[in-house]
Task: structure prediction
Amino acid sequence: MNNDFSTIILAGGKGQRMGGQDKGLVLYRGHPLIHRSVRLASQCTGAVIISANRNIMQYEAFADVVVEDNTPNYGGPLLGIQACASRVLTDYALIIACDLPGLTTDLVQFLQRALLDQAHQVDAVVYRQDGFLQCGLIAVKTLALASIDSELEQDQRSVRKWLESLSLLVLESDDSHAFTNFNTPDNFMPAP
Result:
């Protein structure tokens, strides 16, 4: 565990591809999906903050701090990060999407070490896999979270574009399993 980091877990989506279900609370291998993210975060950081927009009391069973972004009709993950930023009391933060059950502590801790090693030169570290930035796992300096305000003022709500506005270190990953999003009910079905 690295107490220099807090984790923001993003669990505030609409669940459109899930038929409106709250994805973080859908059972996967006997537990709500959020359970895996919280367990991973607890192994790698000292504090866990969940960004959620509904079922707040249920999410409070998984973390001491649950934050709503108070945006009508779900404003997206960048607003969720912004809403949680003031609750991060450490110098660094991890941002984890709740729908990536394949993430491992090795991947997360490597990202954390890369940020700490390069902290003089970069604001954030993220993986790229198959040519795409994997915005569901980010290590970032807490001070850099303040730059989200100016992105939103310009009506820019893309996490990828926000990351690209920072001094960013991109690490290559060939682990496609780790970055497989669980977005539809079929993802939650046991393999045949």
